[in-house]
Amino acid sequence: MPFQHAAGNVLVVDDNAEYRATTAILARLSDCMVTQASNLDEARRACRAAHFDLIMIDLNLPDGNGLDLLDDIDLTAHGKIAVVTGYPTVESAMRAVRSPIVEYLLKPVDSEALSALFADACKLAALRRPKLQPQVGGMVGESPPMLRLFERIRTIARLDVSVLISGESGTGKELVARALHDLSGRNGRFIAVNCGAVATELMSSQLFGHERGAFTGALQTHAGYFEQAEGGTLLLDEITEMPLPLQVYLLRILESGSLTRVGGTREIPTDVRVIALTNRDPEQAVAAGLFRADLYYRLLEFPLSVPTLSERREDIPLLAQHFVDRLNERYHTVKRMSPELLRQYVERPWPGNVRELRHNIQRAYILAAGVVIEPQLERIPEPPRSSDGAIHFRVGMTFEDVEHQMLLKTLSHHGNNKRQAARALGITAKTIYNRLLRYRELGLISDDQVGEPESENGD
To answer: What is the pTM of this model?
Structure first.
C-alpha cells in the first residue's frame, strides 16, 4: 500500500526562542504542525492536550532537565522522542540510553537530520490516521452524531415506514435518503423530486400522472413519479414547498396505498416508500400554515435529523481528505493539504456545511500551484442579519455582497418563487436564475437553492 502523506505533529521544547522559531519554520516546510514550549511545565501541558509524532527536547531548561519530561508523560501516547542539546554530558548520555530515546543530537543539527526527523513524524501521522472508508451510503464520519445517524439508518432501512429527514442545506440529507433506499432491499427505482423546483400547475401531473386528454396538451397517458418509483423509493425534497391541496392528496395516497391519475377514475395500487426532506424546521412550517399537521405526523413515522458540520467538527479532517482523494483519483494527481489549510478548515464556521467545504476544497485544489494545497486568500461574504423582512448591511460591504444578500432574502421572502422575487426586484426571473448559478459555482449557496429556470410566460 503506498504511503499516504499526513501532517506530523511536532513539539519543540527549548528555552531559546530563536532556535524554536527556526526549527518551527523547517518543520512547517516539511508539512508538520508545530507546538512550542519554553520550559517543562509548558511541555507537560502540551503533552496532556495532544498526541505528538515527534518531541524534540533540550536538556537545560529553566525549570529542570528536559529528560524529566519522560517521567511525567505517557510515552505510549506519543511517537519518536529526540534529545537535542548544545551541552552534551556523559551523565545525560547514559540517562538517555536507559530511556526510550530514539535520537541524541548535538546542536547545531544539520538540515538533513532535521528533515529526516520531520519525515518520520509524517509517516507516524499517516499510520495514526484512520482508514478512510465511507460508513453508510458514501457518507464519511466518525463523530458521535454521525455514528448515531448511521446506526438509525441501518435500523430502519428495511422497515416500510415513511421517513422525514430534516437538516440545514448542505448537510447531506439526500445522501441519507439514498442510503435508506440502498439498504432497504427494495427492487424498484429511487426517484427524487424537488417540490420547490416543479411549477405548481404541473406538480399534480408530475407526481401522480395524468390520463390522455386530462387537460390541454395531455396528448398521451403519463405515469407520474409515484408510478415510476413502484417497488422503490420516492424522495420528496423541500416537502414544505408542496401546495397545500396536493399535500391533502399525498396524505390520502399514504393512507390508502393507491392513487388516481389526473383526469382518471381508476385507483392504482402503489408500493412506494416515501421519504421527505426539509431545510425548514417542520414544526415552524406547520405553525406558519405551509405544512399540513396531519401530513407532518404521517411522515413522522420515523424522523431523522442530519447534524450540521459545526456539530461534527471532528469529521472535518476526514471529509477534507476524502474530497482531496477523490480529486486526486479523478485527475491523476498526488496533491495534499498543508497543515495550515487543515487547521483553517477545522476552525471555520461553515454555514454551508459539507457542500461548502467540498466546494472550497475544489477551488483550493484547482488554484494550488504545486503538490501542496495552501490556504487561498478569498473574501467570504457575511450572511445577512435579518429580522421581520429587514436586512442590516455593515459599512464597507461591496455592492456585490449587497446584491447577493438582497436577492437571497427577497427569494426567501417570496417562498423561493423566482417570478415573484423578480417582480419585487424589478428584474427578470432569468437574471435571478443566472445569479443563483454563479453563487453556486462560488460555493455560496447549495444546489437545491438554485432550483430550475422559470419561464417568463407566467409573469
So the answer is: 0.59
